[in-house]
Amino acid sequence: MPHPKPITLTYHLLQEDQVATRDHLEFSLLLSQITTAARIVAQELRRAGLAGMLGKTGTTNVQQEEVKKLDEFANETLIGACEESGLVFGAASEELAGPTHFPLHGRAGAAYAVLVDPLDGSSNTDVDGVLGSIFSIYRRRSLQGQGTDADLLRRGRELFAAGYILYGPSTMLVYSRGKGVHAFTLDPGVGQFFQSSYQIRMPAHGAVYSTNEGIRDRWESGVTEFIERLKSNDSPAGKPYSTRYTGCLTADFHRILLEGGVYIYPQVRGADGKFAGKLRLLYEASPLSYIAENAGGRGSTGRENVLDLEPASLHQRVGFILGSQAEVHLAEQIMSGVQSSGALPTAANGPVRPAVTAERITTARHKRARHQGR
What we know:
Largest sheet: 8 strands, mixed
Structural class: alpha+beta
Helix content: 25-40%
CATH class of the largest domain: Alpha Beta
Shape: globular
Number of helices: 8
Order of helices and strands: HHEEHEEEEEEEEEHEHEEEEHEEEHEEH
CATH topology of the largest domain: Fructose-1,6-Bisphosphatase, Chain A, domain 1
Distance between the termini: 59 Å
Number of domains: 2
CATH architecture of the largest domain: 2-Layer Sandwich
CATH superfamily of the largest domain: Fructose-1,6-Bisphosphatase, subunit A, domain 1
Radius of gyration: 22 Å
């Protein structure tokens, strides 16, 4: 049986919008620049161990995190690609303290702002683990003038497009422009991205959850109860979930996008006793929530939809729950119940069952063991 003709990213973009509007042509060019940068980053990752690119630079970024050499390389490559497109007036990065405004050199057509997490999961760089790059694209509110920082501080609902690059056994591009979610795989032999999935739909529920359970004693209220529910037969899947956690949000989300489930990195209690989020709203939470929603899933803080949040700063952090509708809805029910009067809310299809705690699960196991021993 003959194989179907492979569809390149360029051909896909031409077919997606038969009417060659300015927005479409500009997006195609900008996405082409981003994928060129992705190919350069992917190549550097493959040879990093031989080229002295592993390890740290000896500096810290605006987040007070130690900067890896590959962090710096990916950041410079992606920011440079945005500038070279001629379509971006300014960009912001997780690695930089403030936005970068590009000189327009008399051009009036730089209509876009881009935000990037240049190398997600960079703790994996020195152990040959999976990595990612996340990008968000906004159109300027007005084409008058040079563009301002306000064009970068935007709700996820206002996104023009968003996507990510996954650097794993293969290099993949996943993106959405509000009309579905599509995936492309890089063929390194020809240097082209070819369509591997079209109109991806996230399952209504899954059977995996992704979280860092090493900090569970510092989680905000309700999260432990939610995770214990997932570990029980009382879960949305009707069976205990499995844990899958790579340390790279992009990789964990990619599995959930295809197979369903939930990723959760809630607010955690700090040394000062206050709760705060870990993940960045603009660089991680908003773009991935946008992709999830366009595939049938959702992103939430546990109290509200991530896409409705008004950012207060470029590096704002939030508690984050991302995945299939069933799991995100259950997390919101349990967390809102714990944080209000202590009584769990009522769902549309009837009362929510009490959260399954570790103590209840242990008791149930002892009962089963006694019964089997008779």
